[in-house]
Amino acid sequence: MEKLPIAKAINAGLRKALEDDPKVLLMGEDIGPLGGVFRVTEGLQKDFGEDRVIDTPLAESGIVGTAIGLAVRGYRPVVEIQFDAFIFPAYDQIVTQLAKLHNRTAGTVKTPVVIRVPYGGGIGSPEHHSESPEALFAHVAGLRLISPSNSNDAYWMIQQAIQDDDPVMIFEPKRRYWQKGEVDFQNSPGDKHRAHIVRPGTDLTLAAYGPLVTTALSAAEAAQEEGKNIEVIDLRSLSPIDFETLAESVNRTGHLVIAHEAPTFVGLGAEIAARITERCFFSLEAPVLRVGGFHLPYPPSRLEEHYLPDLDRMLDAVDRSLAY
Amino acid sequence: MVQMITADGERVENAEYDKLVADLTDEDLRGFYRDMVLVRRVDNEGTALQRQGQLGLWAPVLGQEATQIGTGRATHPNDYIFPTYREHGVAFTRGVPPETLLGMFRGVSHGGWDPTENNFHTYTIVIGSQTLHAVGYAMGVQRDGNVGTGDPDRDTAVMAFFGDGASSQGDVNEALVFSASYNAPVLFICQNNQWAISEPSTRQTRIPLYRRGEGFGIPGVRVDGNDVLAMYAVTKASLDHVRSGAGPLLIEAFTYRMGAHTTADDPTKYRSSAEVDAWSRRDPIDRFRKYLVNNGTADEAFLTSVDDEADQLAARVRAACIGMPDPDPSTMFDHAYANPHPLVDEERAWLAEYNASFTDASVAGGE
Ligand SMILES: Cc1ncc(C[n+]2csc(CCOP(=O)(O)OP(=O)(O)O)c2C)c(N)n1
């Protein structure tokens, strides 16, 4: 066991993957000598060389498109997108090609490309540096999406993503990159697509993922002081979503609040609310409530605290749910 | 590479471009110098304000002043400019108040100025996107009949700025295709400051960037981007060409980003101090000052007055920045759509009610 910030845990996971499998390659803008703008790839080019840790031209469509070709040739490219909203020049390659090639070739061609996306707000940046576009990708069949919230998951899930024969997008909670947590280098936490109950409780289920898991845990603690016993679930996987774990929890608590930074309109919370309502209709004591961003372009950073769900907004939803 | 003033401040003759600067008065030349000094002072203030926590981020233009003042001063008021996010000098020549530029970096707006007021578009952060907008705008200019009329008050050119890194983007290459296909009145200005964050321009291209347009049918010229006179002359000639309806052109301004990419960057991780030293000996302001002083266009009194003016401007920018209030939270709902939208209205009302529900005023005010 060792305490590591999330960014360093991903770095350790990438290092292990590069050591274990010579077919693993890293690609992206500024990932070489600089180590990426968040230093997640720090030191890797020095140790594995420019052929394995590839500084690319400034072209996202080019990065993902060539990663697809490398994967077809038998490599396992791990691509870094510098910031969430800079993925859109590559959207076409991801959606029309990467997600569909396995299907198009009746299973003969595999495209084990991993796309790392530092996402989410709360870091005081200008436009395009704070978005949560996960729902746009969750809607696309053929892709898998995961989002670790802590260092141990970060270390293990990046490696599991690289081992997966499907394309995997890993949404990394950039505002938590410097948050430290224990990493167990020996024992894997298991299936990357399983949700974890990170705080057991009996009164209400609060589901979150990525950057908001930490916030949800603080909200649960605050609610405890008022005698409310909240169960917090870290979804970990955004496509597929582990509805088993969620439904089991909601059947016990009768209440579900789901939180994400992305706008609630057509967000992942809407899908979860619909499916849990189907599965748990007779156990639910209140409608499933969502806490999320507004139907707006992400605002200038001086307003982001009003845009982003925080502990108070979560507690407000908890109160509304329990008031039914 | 077109150069008219050397790094030592010597004027070199240029058969092709000398006539384009022939009518510049001493006053004009002193104006170029003044512009560069003021822009550098504002830029340094931006970096300082970021260090003091007043700005979330700042993208320094240090070293690129000659490119930006030279190109900006060569434009006509009806030309329309599409910048990236580092065109503080061009903005200055177009009359955008420097303090206005700080809003986006402070985090109080996504733009902050009316692009139609000075024909200077808002900054674009997504690399290369704006080059296509420039071509589309130019196609509109064509359709409005404002190209090649011979009437200087009517003929319009469009300028698209982008970086050496941006030259790799699909959008930029598509902009070159479209502009050539439709003979659109666009002047592309590639500011080759040698680096795209940590990646050298050799990572983006194997040929000099001014030749990037050739395969698309767009002629290009490389200019010493640290020479304000050459930048002015070549831009002026190119804008005339573009306005006349003769088609798009590409200028590569060969310059250097002396500071960090942004205040979030650490250039010591990827470039040598020897390189920075070599380029600082080609500083655009030093060289022009030498030239003006040597030929008697500028005296000590003038230089001092410019420094004083720069001090005053910096103080004004600083005060304006520190005094820039956080916007009212409800304003974020104001311009997502042009017409009313029920979901936005509902969410605006929800937030107002939610904020009002806090008895603790400091929380409701978002302080
Ligand atoms: C599509 C996209 N990808 C990545 C980024 C992040 N980014 C911001 S500036 C920059 C480098 C740009 O280099 P260049 O075009 O040479 O312009 P310079 O900043 O050097 O003036 C990068 C990679 C971005 N803004 N947009």
Short key terms for the protein model shown above:
heterodimer, A: about 325 residues, alpha/beta, seven-stranded mixed beta sheet, five-stranded mixed beta sheet, about 20% strand, globular, B: about 375 residues, five-stranded parallel beta sheet, two-stranded antiparallel ribbon, 14 helices, about 10% strand, binds thiamine diphosphate
- The computed structural class of chain B is alpha/beta
Rg over C-alpha atoms of chain B, rounded to the nearest angstrom: 22 Å
> How would the global form of chain A be characterised?
globular
Summarize model confidence as the mean pLDDT of chain A. 98
Tally of helical runs of chain B? 14
**Bound molecule kinds, no repeats:** thiamine diphosphate
Order of strands across the widest beta sheet of chain A? 3-2-4-5-7-6-12
Protein name (chain B): Pyruvate dehydrogenase (Acetyl-transferring) E1 component subunit alpha
Cofactor (chain B): thiamine diphosphate
Organism (chain B): Saxibacter everestensis
Keywords (chain B): Oxidoreductase, Pyruvate, Thiamine pyrophosphate
Task: Give a short summary of the structure.
The complex is a heterodimer of chains A (324) and B (367). With 324 residues, chain A is an alpha/beta fold.
How would you characterize the overall build of this protein?
Chain A contains twelve helices and 14 strands. With 324 residues, chain A is an alpha/beta fold. The radius of gyration of chain A is 19 Å and the shape is globular. In chain A, 59% of the residues are buried. Chain B has 367 residues and is of the alpha/beta class. The model of chain B has no long low-confidence stretch (mean pLDDT 96). Classes of the chains: A alpha/beta (324), B alpha/beta (367). The interface between A and B is large, with 40 and 47 residues. Thiamine diphosphate (TPP) sits at the interface of chains B and A.
